Structure formats: C-alpha cells, structure tokens
Amino acid sequence: MKTRIVSAIIAFWFVWATAEGLQVQSQTVRPSAPSSKLSDLEAAQNAANSKPGPRSLPARDIPVPDTVSPELASAIAWPYRLPNWNANPKSAAEWNKLVADLAAVAAAAQPAIREKLGVKLETAMMGGVKVYILTPKEIPPANRNRLLIHVHGGGYVYNPGEAGTQEGALMAAYGGFKVISVDYRMPPDYPYPAAMDDAMAVWKAALKMQRPANMAIFGTSTGGGMTLAMVLRAKQEKLPLPGAIAPGTPWSDLTETGDSYKTNEWLDNILVSYNGYLARAAQLYANGRDLKDPQLSPIYGDFHGFPPTILTSGTRDLFLSNTVRTHRKLRQAGVEAALQVFEGMSHAQYTLSPYTPESKEVFTEIARFFEAHLGE
Amino acid sequence: MKTRIVSAIIAFWFVWATAEGLQVQSQTVRPSAPSSKLSDLEAAQNAANSKPGPRSLPARDIPVPDTVSPELASAIAWPYRLPNWNANPKSAAEWNKLVADLAAVAAAAQPAIREKLGVKLETAMMGGVKVYILTPKEIPPANRNRLLIHVHGGGYVYNPGEAGTQEGALMAAYGGFKVISVDYRMPPDYPYPAAMDDAMAVWKAALKMQRPANMAIFGTSTGGGMTLAMVLRAKQEKLPLPGAIAPGTPWSDLTETGDSYKTNEWLDNILVSYNGYLARAAQLYANGRDLKDPQLSPIYGDFHGFPPTILTSGTRDLFLSNTVRTHRKLRQAGVEAALQVFEGMSHAQYTLSPYTPESKEVFTEIARFFEAHLGE
Predict the structure, then answer these.
(1) This prediction's pTM
(2) Which ranges constitute the DSSP H helices of chain B?
C-alpha cells in the first residue's frame, strides 16, 4: 500500500516535471492543497490567474467550520446524499420507484419529529387538493387569525405525501402558526402545470378561510420557487396576494444560471451539482416548456407589487445566487425584502436538520417577519 | 507538446488505476474538471466525499457569471491584484514604501473620479485628526442636517491620505450626503490603538457639529470592522451612538475564522487568501495584542444596543462569513440589521469599481437605509 502511494507520488512528480508550463499542467493534473507548500500554491495560482477570464481554482479540502453549532457542524460534515443528488432514473416507472422509496424513509421519520416538536397532523382536501394541516401545541393570541400555506421542496419530484411536511411542522412549532402544507401533484405522471394548479387551488380555497393580509406563503427550494410563481400567477389572475412570503433558497432559475451553481458546486453537500437529478427533474417538470418561462423560473417574472418577502440561504448553498438574485430583483422592484444567509449552510440544510439551533433561528426569524407584516 | 499532454494523461491514468482506493488518490492527485468526463468527476467526488469530514473539492475553472452587468463582469474577470494581495514587506521601511507607492496610484485617480461624480473635496482637521470633507453637487433637503462619517478600508495598512477617499466620494455622490472621511494613522509607524483613537476623536468632534441621531458611520472591509469597533467603544465610553451604521463586508474577525476564508479562497480576486498581506497586516496592527480583542475583531464584542445596521457583501467575497456572522450576531442581539449580498462580487469590489450599476445600487440601498433611520 505504502509503496503504491510512493509510486503514485513519483509518477505524479514525473508528469508534473516534464510537462510544459503551469497553464498546461493546470489543465491536466494539479497538486492538491494539502500536499503543496503554500508558496508553491500561491505561485501556481498567481500564474493561473494572471489574465482576465475564468477563475482557476486548485483542488482543496475545506474543513468543517467551527463557527456554527456542533449540530450544524455535524450536518455540514455529512457525505453527499446518495442516491438523492445524482439519481438518474431511466423511465417513469424508475422515477416513481425512486421517489416512493425516498419518500417512505422521510415519511417514517415524521411522527417522531412532530412528537418532539409538539405538532399535530391532520389530512384534508382543499379545492380538490390533498393537504396536511399542521397545528402546534400553542398558538400565540396574535397568530390565531393567521394562516400559513406551505409548499414543500424536492425538485418537483421528491417528497410526495407526508415526506413533504417536515418544513411545515418546523414552522408550526418554532413560529407558533397553523400551517397548511400542499401535497401537489408531480412528474413524471403530472408535469407542469399540475403542481402550480394544485397550489393555486389551495390558495383560492384558503382565501375563503382567512383574510389574505393575514396569510403568508412559504417553502424552500422548489417550494420557494413555487411561492414566487404563486404570487406571479395570483397577480396575473387578479387574486388577492398574501400579506408576506418566505421563499427559502428558492429554485428561482431552473436553468444553470447564476454564479453559485458553479462556485458552490461540490461544496454543497445536499444538492452537490446542478448536473445531477436537478437538471433531469427540471426537464421532467417542464415537459418541453421553456425553462425560462416565469412560471417555471420566477426570476424572469415581474416582481412589482410583491408582498414583503424574507429570503434564506447559506454560504455553501448551490442556490445562494438564486437567492441573492431574487433578493436584488425584489429590491429593484421596490419590494420590502429581507435576506438572511447562514454560515456554512448548504442548500435547505435548515429544513433537513430540524434540531440545530440555526434551524430554529431560521424559522424564528421568518416568524418575526410574518408577525411584523401580517394582519391580525 | 500534444504528445506530452497525452503521456501525462496516460501516466495519470496508470497512477489512478493502480493505486488502492479512491480516498488515497484524492490525497495525491486528482483529475481537473475540464479534462475529465463529468461522470468520472462525479464518481471521484462521490468517493472523496463518502465519509463525514472535510469537503473535498476538485480543481476547477469558474466562468465569469453572465448574471451581472458587463461592467461588473469585467471586474470579476480581472486577474489577482499584485502586489496588493500577497505583499510581504520585510521591514517597516519596506512597508512604508509599498503603501506609499500603492497610495500614489490610487490618489492620482481620485480627481477624475470626483469630477465624474460631481463631488468636491476639502481637507480639514477634526479633533486633531486629518479628515477629508466630500460634498456632492446637490444635497436633497432631507439630508441637509445629516452627516456621514467614513472610515476607509485597506487592511489597516493601505490607503492613507486621498487614496482612502474613493468610497466616501461614491457615498456622497450616489447617496446625496455630506461625508467626512477619516485619514487615521496606521502601522507600521502607528499600530493599534492609533487608528481607533483617531476615528473616535473625529466622532467626538462630529458630536459637536450635528445631532448623533442625524449621523451615520460607514466603511468597507477594515473600515467596516472599525465602524463596528467604534460603536463598541462609544458604548463603553458612554458616548452617543450614531443613528445608523453601514459596515460593508467588515473585517470583523482578524483571525482566519469563518467558513468563507476557506470556501472563497482563490475565488475572490481582490483579497485572494487570508494568507497574503492580510495575515501580516493583522499582526502589524495588533502589535502583540490578542487578535480576538473585540476592539480588533468586533465579532467578539457585545452588539446589544447597536443602531440599525446595513451590511453588504458578495457571493465570492472572502469576507462573506465575516459579514453574515456579524449579521446573525446583530439579529441575535435584537438589532434591526439588513443584509445585501451581490451576485458574483468579490471583496469590496463595489468600492474599487466605482461605475458599475451594482456599485451604484450598493450605495443607493445604503442611502435608503440611512434615510429611513436617521433623524432630519
């Protein structure tokens, strides 16, 4: 074993020493940071970045940060999620099996999570769509006439049924709100616009239950993108808008557009890369439609007249750019929009790791924002 | 040439194929993204990130994003700044010469920038400290009884004299405020606490000119860190606090603590790495003092009672973590704190590239925040 490592190092050195010019080597092989002296790395990096153009980055090991809670540090240290991130089903049947298998695991975890959080789950139908009603043990008086609509994440393919309720339970518990979580239809069986039709049917039904100014819509990832698309569609259909929204790290651009799709690729341990299941799910959902249609990629829509919005992301989030681009565009449209970015967090880690202090902080901040902007 | 590249690839493949276990190879050599097929990269990354621990990243070329203005895209494409980022002077005399040389270039650019922005510069003394007074062509009526104090950036060593006034001129022009920019003393000749003593002397003098509620303090990088340290010290000395502050991508932690010191290393084309001039400047400024003293690293201070604060950063910023950690800590202390993060921006790029639409947006947003929180 040791001999092979030494041989490998020698062979590598030979390749390195005989190839011509640093630029050429950087296209073939590069020493990783830990095995190089800092001054060598510095020289190589300066040479590789001496002209205007793309940024050349060396191979690196990035330590788990010590600036987060131990619970979040452990989530950050996690390996990539397999098969979630790079799933590549070859048929509708394979998609359905994969989704069902993953959903079974996630759903099985929910009763214990709700028990720990003190949240009750009921099922119901609203506007012909299946929903879950999540009620915390205690709802503060100011929130008794308020109602939150939740749209779950999962790239438009994952998290059907109870598997999609975790974030709703967290918001109900940490925020003290009644939450209705939409179990919208998904591809391969139901591509766009089924998911949006279902979400809008629930919104229309909710308008008969509560004043729109007392309601908020929220969701993470795909749920964040759908939250934005719901407001766009409500504007278009001249429906009343919610009093506030909280798109968390929204999939606001279904194309691989935005700097962090590249800068945080391989660093984000949840999504890892656009070129895994995400790219496939986008096509599956769009079903031939232009991915830049604002109903699919709401970043291309008109944000004028949007209600107050709070956005959440993390420094390692593959969707950091989706989030900050959405924030900037909302601000440019004159919308009251708040941004919170959490240290070291990958995509949606605050919903996936329910008990970190940072997760509680995320939902508490969203709750404060809702309290400040919703009617009573 | 081509033969050598092919030999290199074959030799590499041999090493790859004969070594035992992907984990071992990832410690020695790795294929770079451009020359590997995506599926190979995916397999190598999955293997290298299959256990809890540090994140293993491949060598990569990151394209210039197309989600920013052409002007900002050109700034993002820039090579690393040499000798700024990795300067390593061996003596006080060498430091002074380097700083003077860089400052001469920056100062020479200022008259044309002010001319273009319509800003007038005057020099004055306040509390025994040299300051620059920057006045825009027009000050809106609501801002006539408002005054901004500016503390420049440059790692506590760069930008003495007129070289430090660029950000002040941008704020004066884009925001429509009168700005006083502090030309504080710096190491090697004047280490801590000279810079802070000067900044506080100007604050005390300013308190005789204007009501504190009508004044804000702002600055970027070191200027952002000093802005936070000034409020901490004003609290301690029981001086009146400003009505609002705007620490831009603050150097709130002089130690290499925070995730983006690593994740955005080599990606940020302004600071590039902590292990360049920054680490040396921190020692020079601290002059033996603990770098975690809250007057040097204000993130370790108590933010309770801070005035409303707006923070600015970019997705490629080496200080993204300094910024978001400061934001979270302010929010935890109950402070009204806004965060704005700009797509693709490296550290302080909005002050260094004065004419990008994004730079104008940064300062316009800060101005709106000041208008909302300062007395008239």
Answers:
(1) 0.91
(2) 2-18, 22-28, 38-48, 70-77, 92-117, 166-175, 194-206, 222-236, 260-263, 277-286, 320-332, 349-352, 357-373
